[in-house]
Amino acid sequence: MVSVINTVDTSHEDMIHDAQMDYYGTRLATCSSDRTVKMFDVRNGGQILVADLRGHEGPVWQVAWAHPMFGNILASCSYDRKVIIWKEENGSWDKMHEYCGHESSVNSVCWGPYDFGLILACGSSDGAISILTFTGDQQWDVKKISNAHTIGCNAVSWAPAVVPGSLIDQPSGQKPNYVKRFVSGGCDNLVKLWKEEDGQWKEDQKLEAHSDWVRDVGWAPSIGLPTSTIASCSQDGRVFIWTCDDPAGNTWTAKLLHKFNDVVWHVSWSITGNILAVSGGDNKVTLWKESMDGQWACISDVSKGQGAVSTITDTQQTEQ
Amino acid sequence: MRLKEIQRTAHQAWSHAEHHPIHLALGTSAQQLDASFNTTSALEIFEVDFSDPSLEMQLKGSLPTSNRFHSIVWVNYGMGEDGTGGRLVAGSENGTLTVYNPEVIMSSGAEAVIGQSDKHTGPIRALDFNPFQSNLLASGANDSEIYIWDLNNFSSPMTPGAKTQPAEDISVVSWNRQVQHILASANPSGKAVVWDLRKNEPIIKISDHSNRMHYSGMLWHPEVATQLVLSSEDDRMPVIQMWDLRFATSPLKVFENHTRGILSMSWSQADPELLLSSAKDNRILCWNPNTGEVIYELPTTNQWCFDIQWCPRNPALLSAASFDGRITVYSVMGGSLKAQQQSTADTISSSFDAMDPFGTGQVLPPLQVPQPVVQDTIVSPLKKPPKWVRRPVGASFAFGGKLVTFENPKPAPVQSPQPVPRLVFVSQVTTETELLQRSRELQAALQSGSFNSYCQAKIQSAKSDAEQDIWKFLLVNFEDEARVKFLRLLGFSKDELERKISKCLGKSFQHNGHGVDAKDLAQKMQQLSTERADEGDAATPSSVSPADFFSQTPKENSNFQIPVSCDTDGLISQALLVGNFEGAVDLCLNDGRYAEAILLSISGGEELLKKTQQTYLSNQKNSISMLISSVVTQNWSDIVQSCELDNWKEALAALLTYAHPEDFARLCDTLGGRLEHERTEKRCLQACLCYICSGNIEKLVECWALHRDCASPLGLEDLVEKVMMLRKSIERLRNSEVVVQSPILAEKLTCYAGILAAEGSLATAMTYLPEHSDQAGITMLRDRLFHAQEEAAGGQQPPNSFNRANVSTAKPTPAAQAPAPKAQMMSQYQPQAPPQAPQQQQQPPMPSFYTPQTATNSGPDLPPFSHVPPPSSTRPASRPPYPQQPAPAPGFLPHQPFQPQRMPGGGPSGFPPPGPSMPAANLSGPQLSPPSSAPRGLPPMPSPGVPPTSFMPSTSLPSGPISPSSQPGAPVPMYPGGLHNQGPAPPMAPGPYAPVGSGYPQGGPGAPAVKPFSAPPPTGPHEGWNDPPAVRGGPRKKKVPENYTPPAPITAPVMGFPVEAPQPRDHAQVPPGAPQEPSVQLLQQLPAERVEQKEIPAEHMVLRSTFDSLVQRCQLAAGDPQTKRKLDDAGKRLGYLYDKLREQSLSHSILNGLHEISRCVASQNYQRGLEVHTQVVSSSNFSEISAFMPILKVLMTIANKLGV
């Protein structure tokens, strides 16, 4: 089920905090407490260091790739309170923009769906969320939600671009009426949904279920169904799946995916939105899938042990 | 950053870590009075709710107490499952130790006090509970009193050992964090004692020899069992000492920064590198005890803070109690004070009844509360990021079912000099193993062309009868005499019937064999039709002359009367006598003499016969009359439109037997439509069978989707298998590619491709993606698949499937500005043709044969807005626009010997040669509109059985505008313009699917058993379903010699070789998914020709044989076109290696490396081979080896993957 096809030695000098593949799955960006962002070409099972981006003055928490239609663009956020947007020009990577509008560690960056243009959400420990929109001419428009999460926002994740009330793309020529939405999670134990109305960001929903910091949130990619799905994970070891069936987006129901014994740091949806990868403080990654009857089941346990380079774990071998 | 604040002079205790929500208990502190000299005391519990942004804390419960407190702790003893509860233990100024139930306090219940003891004789300043056994609590008071309390048995505390002498106040007690029976106590005089509770005695004493340490605080290291810190309250020595008991003679470290005595310390349990201290210098500092560095200073008041505590649950929080009567909750993560202060002002403002504060009944203007000057103080966070924000692990999905994971090994307690490897793992996640397996089988069948056995296997493994039926029908499509077999599947066996008829007629059945022998049957039918023809021949003259007719009547009675009376008989006779057949027939009919009527009307001419039949049939109302009527009138529409649906089998059988090829498909579809309309599952399946007979893929998909689950991957697999097989069978019959422009099929295939992509089968996914779609989702997926395939690295020009928005740092364009609405964005996704494209298209010599054009003839100036990526431009869709006039080009004829070879496949040979025009051609790929796709296939073949390989292009091409129908198949590829635009169009039924029916050319009325057209088995290149028909093989050759110089390595062109020469480079540009078989043949020739030039030195021949055999092995094993393509490429690129070998131009080290690789290959140790490869590459001159080394790696990688 899960087999390691490539092991990349990043040569980071400190903890790795994030590793993200680009849109095509051919380039890997990593970031670390050693304050660097590295980029590898990982095609054909190899690893070629493409770039070693230095510019942050603190640990770099997350990296995010923009959609390739905008070029090769990567955003990184750091404990140094900065967000740096890097861009590849003529084969070399340089700072495209540096955003210093936060007063504390910026913990999360997430690019919006390409349909919205080049738009980036940043969540910070100062409790605020910034939304940066590229307006051309090296200009970035900034909207800030102050005190989005008291004592800190840990994660942001955009909703897929869906026109409310319509499942299919509207005929071209007609201006689609997207509602921009994203979800955030914070140290106030809350999951919050935000919606842009008349150019202003408003709190749309407040989802309460976690009893400790919400570590990560992930809005599932749209699979053509009218249901919106969000996963949230927390310091309390719980992972919740939030779903909303009503078109107005007001009624969200929580389903407990699992209660882990350790902090759950990260959730990630597969591109098709049917599998959720959950990574916990015990260095374990589990994969979850919703069965036909709506129950979430663990389909794989991607534990590799401490730094061990095993291709397939025992459990997987027995599964195969 | 200050988060919460309340006016209290109190000692504090956070609720324990498991407790949710977070509460803070405050007990009025002893020995402190505020200005009111209030001496009441209370225990209060507040909820710290951060979803409320204000500075307020909500009071949850309050209990008046008789004593004030020196110490208070919240123990998780007695904690409920939900993390609530626990115990509050408070030590008072008079020596009373009281245990409270916080839940009861919060619910204002009566029995909040659970236990109380007056054992201590003086104020209890020290309290700590055991982190391992929460029922164990240590307390310290004056007179060296230390008690260990068991909350289970509160009345009788124990002591850790004999009291230390001289008797002193105990200022602090602390349990070790690692060893549960170790307790330490300290006193202001500068002594600390470590007790072992198992031995019940002090085991070590720590004292500072300076005598100036007045211990105010002591804490064990959260993780290192032997280390503890001690703080001094003495202003002369305001330091924190770190001691290690392994070396207890002097402190390990001394932290100096405070300027006056330290009052309180707290060590973060979440991050041992965070130690808080507050001192009489009004400062609160955070230390990294490992380095002794102050990493944070809290922006505090100008008051002493006498009690400071990390929040156990929320590691970023701490609370500080100061002598100015404030309890403040801070965060160490920094942030702005602005929001909080603002909200405080709001609270103050709203706490007054702004409308009517004095109850006067008069509404006053809103109270103007003087707003505190909002200082936008930015508080920086901890210098060192705390442990709890450092994410140690992560897993993120990436395209193609990849999962990127990383983890960080737990830091070793001892710093090892060895750097920790920081690894990121890329894994392939597959969840649909069954789907992948089936998809592989399907791919294998599609590529090998073994459709029959595939269908057979499907029949074998079918889980339901319905499923089995469908596969049987699909199988029949691949067999000869499809109609007969369909009939049999429907339960109509000719043999069986014959037997029954014989029985019915009482004749003994004679049969010449078992089962149906096709030949026999054909003979029989031949006979039958001959007989019939004979009869017809015999009858014809009789219809001409009535006299003859009568002359053939039996002459049993030599004499007969001709009645001429006025009754019916007489009238008939008279009418006949005067030749009035019509009248005679009418009379017969009127009299019910149908037989006579028919007989007469046969003589009376065709029209009369027809009329008579009609009259007869309209009068007959029995059950078979309708059938007879249809058979006679050949009016099958009635049958399919009005038969009982339960008789669908019969109706279908009738169609199979009688329907004209041109009508067959339509009629089947009509019948299917009726069945489908019932919307029951059974009927839908039956409808599916009808559609399979008619070959209507689109309807099949629609109908299938109605009642079968296509959302689940396996459901989709079910559908795709059938569709692909049906498509194959149609292609086989039509001998051309079938492109179905059905939105629903496109949707299903896209969905299927999406699933395959998600499972990592990128190349396979690509083959299913609808070709000629400019739907945004499909284009994007195609682009993504293309770029995602690792092999795309190999120097190909990737298709620019979407317009890259210009977000250049240097020069932004308006296009990329602003959040563009989707429509706009999608239009940007359309490819941007290189500027030269339109220009090129207007130069007739250049694009005439290569620029793909829509069948609707949008012309060369068609703006390239509709995007079709290269794969499709190699497809028949891109039929050259210009050659509407036959252009027997000069230079064409000499190349004809290659025609037949290249013809069948078309493929890359039809691909434009590289050059500036290339991208333009790619990007401007046309969009085929659905109706135009049908005629693109070969026309229906009235003379079946002409194998494509027998075409002689050399004759067909120069022979001018021949109608394609006159020489089916042959001219079409050679003369693409003609098919659509000129010449008498081949008979074509309306609608895009009509040609399907003509795939059953044998199905003439009354001739069901005629041996049907058997298409020649597909020649090799035809196998891939996505192989284009050989549309442009011929014309393109004209261009190449004109403007293309063959690449240098090919030095000895054989006849026509210049034409072929560009092939390899063409090939390199063929995008994945493009067929390449012709080039296989071509490439296999190459080495042979080269051998003639020069021999490879004998010692190096082994390289060649090893590598060539590896390529061959791989080719045999390779399944997907992607890999095959690469292997073809490998064959070519290895040629460069062999060239070098012949020239002996390779250095010794490279040769050694190559031989080593060759040995690895021979032993199938590809892993090792790759390693050697890397060594060679890294140690060699790139230009020397660049021509062949990369492909060697690819080759070994493939070999490794295939396990050959």
Automatic annotation (TrEMBL), chain A:
Belongs to the WD repeat SEC13 family. It is found in: Lysosome membrane; Nucleus, Nuclear pore complex. GO terms for biological process: COPII-coated vesicle budding; mRNA transport; positive regulation of TOR signaling; protein exit from endoplasmic reticulum; protein import into nucleus. Pfam families: WD40 (PF00400). WD repeats lie at residues 9-50, 53-87, 207-242. It comes from the Eukaryota. As a component of the GATOR2 complex, functions as an activator of the amino acid-sensing branch of the mTORC1 signaling pathway. The GATOR2 complex indirectly activates mTORC1 through the inhibition of the GATOR1 subcomplex. GATOR2 probably acts as an E3 ubiquitin-protein ligase toward GATOR1. In the presence of abundant amino acids, the GATOR2 complex mediates ubiquitination of the NPRL2 core component of the GATOR1 complex, leading to GATOR1 inactivation. In the absence of amino acids, GATOR2 is inhibited, activating the GATOR1 complex. It comes from Champsocephalus gunnari. At the nuclear pore: component of the Y-shaped Nup107-160 subcomplex of the nuclear pore complex (NPC). The Nup107-160 subcomplex includes NUP160, NUP133, NUP107, NUP98, NUP85, NUP43, NUP37, SEH1 and SEC13. At the COPII coat complex: interacts with SEC31A and SEC31B. Interacts with SEC16A. Interacts with SEC16B. Component of the GATOR2 subcomplex, composed of MIOS, SEC13, SEH1L, WDR24 and WDR59. The GATOR2 complex interacts with CASTOR1 and CASTOR2; the interaction is negatively regulated by arginine. Its main location: membrane. This is Protein SEC13 homolog.
UniProtKB/TrEMBL annotation, chain B:
Residues 861-891, 928-947, 984-993 have a biased composition (Pro residues). Residues 572-699 form the Sec16 Sec23-binding domain. PROSITE patterns: WD_REPEATS_1, WD_REPEATS_2, WD_REPEATS_REGION. GO terms for cellular component: COPII vesicle coat; endoplasmic reticulum exit site; endoplasmic reticulum membrane. One of its GO terms (biological process) is COPII-coated vesicle cargo loading. Residues 526-545, 791-1078 are annotated as: Disordered. It comes from the Eukaryota. It is a peripheral membrane protein. SMART domains: WD40. Belongs to the WD repeat SEC31 family. This is Protein transport protein Sec31A. It comes from Champsocephalus gunnari.
